[in-house]
Design a protein that fits this description.
By secondary structure, this protein is an alpha+beta fold. The protein has 16 helices and 37 strands.
Amino acid sequence: MNDVKRAVCAGLALACAATSADGLDIGFRLQLGNPDDTNLAHRVEVTSAELDRMTETTNASGVVVRRWYGHRLLGADFVAEATLTPTDGGVEYAFAYRNCASKLSVERLGFPDVFFPRTNELRIFYPHQQGHVTWPHWESLAPGETAVHHYPQGFHFIAALEPTGEGVYVDQRGTARLEATEVAALQGVGRTAHLVSWHDLPVSSESTRAFRLPYPGVVRQFRGDWFEACRIYRDWVRTQPHYRAAAARPRGQLADVAMWFWNRGRSEKVIAPVERFRDEAGVPVALDWYWWHRISYDTDFPHFWPPREPESDFRAGVARCRLGGIYVQPYVNGMTWDCDNPTWDEGGAQGAVMERDGRVRKYLFNRFTGHSLAYMCGEAPRHQAHMRQVVRTLAGCGFDGVYMDMIDNAAWGPCWNASHRHPRGGGTHMAEGFRRYVGAVRKENPGLQLSSEDGCEAYLELFDSVISLYANGERLTGATAPRDVFVPGFNAIFHPCVTSFGSFAMIDGIPAWDETWPAEERWTEERPWEKLFPDQFAVELSRGPSWGIQPCVHNFLLEHAEDPRFADDYRFMIETARFWHRNRPWLLSGEMLSPGRLSCPAQRVAFMRRSTYAKKGEFATCVQEALPTVFHSVWRSPDGRVAAVFVNWSREPRVFRLEAPDLMAAGELPARTWKLIERKEDG
């Protein structure tokens, strides 16, 4: 039976079943295969609707137990059991199966598999980076076709949002999460949709015979948008030790930073513009220092030391930052090895993540060199030992922190490397291995703050800061409203547990160029990008801070502060940094509240999509046809004060009106200015 037919059968069977658990139909799926067969097409899927029979009981407390029995592939004695315990507004689930007699291995478990009615207005919120709301073209999907397909690594829930009715929320709770919890939103039968959470299991005879999901979760219906879904998860996660540990740690100098500079190259090039801005804005600043290493970017990792300038100059540059009050951290990649580097066989191959078909999991980032970076498993002793030494060396140079790229957003997923001690497939080995590794780095370097890419709950208390870039979603993905909207979901949940910074905002629109790359690939004719895309810099600079992300500019050079072409944007940088610094009780330390509804004029904005490795002369344009000209957010400070933050990024005065549960406000903002309105004590 093909996947589409199977999905149709499952949907019909569940639709006919008696509903329970807050009116939602909940089933399961199993995917089985021969782990030595690398052809994924040979994997077989079994749904709960295909089992021989199902019973359902409800006790006096309202706890529902569903049991499914027998299947031609799983055996006559196979039993699967879902326990659904009433909780606030929904049910808490547990799941287990036993007596599986299949000759194939159970490789993936899909539970809960939640079916519910939908309209064509149904949106899906899922944890891509900060958070992403997408509006699928439901009417064009075939039965069983996937509308959204995602591996949540930042936080562990997904929600279906119905603008005029009840949405559906599904999460996973607990610390012993399986790796690569994949969430799919599928088109069911007719006007039915379903959310299914896929868990990659450790492939072993034990887990095939019997398995118990090692954590509970919640399924519930709710009314509201993405923020209401985030609040459900936030209410739970605040009670957890990892959240409390992250929230309790001191931020140190990070708490004062009002502007980050994501600069690349030798010390004089990257430090002087930061000093210039510090002096003119009069606020504390930070330098996220890339390309300090002799090797080419995205090539020859993990061999970062020595620096590309004389070591004495490099160390002097670090001291210069520290003496000038500039928080400074260098770039390293925390989890990859160049598999085209001669040292690959000295430890890279040993620790690499393997796909099911035996290929190394790798990616070609730098098209100029043709070298691919291989992803390391949590079980990669030589790689981890090497990187621990690199960090110790950098700490000895006097840095405030070290940025360890990719761990937060890429250290997850199954590994099929048969030479590793962990079982092939999924499990907890990736998170456990990287937690031990990062924990060792912290222990060996007391006082050194660590940073990584995006936010990830699995490592929440281990990284002090994260670079968060998807306030620049147009540049990175080309996604535009109304079908796709990026939102600050991670900050709505975890702010202020971890300091977020970052953006790709470039005042001249020109990405940095590494002198180690082939000269013939370098763009020789740049256009006046600030005129062709006059609003992009202001939008990208201001949206992140309005979400509670520390301001940041990318590839900022000394001449940018001096060139009259950029005078207005440079003034806006200073205004943004000063505003952020004055209002840290809300934007840095506050709790995000419901954004409510903001009314303001909208404007068409064009964004240039040009990557660091773009071919000479090639770029794309992404257009938001009706972007709100005022961004906003609502916050409660630690001492209980409620305030709303507004920024008019446009080049004209704009009026606005906010109606939010915790605050009402209205007014007019001059062009490219910020404003904070605090709620009066009398409400």
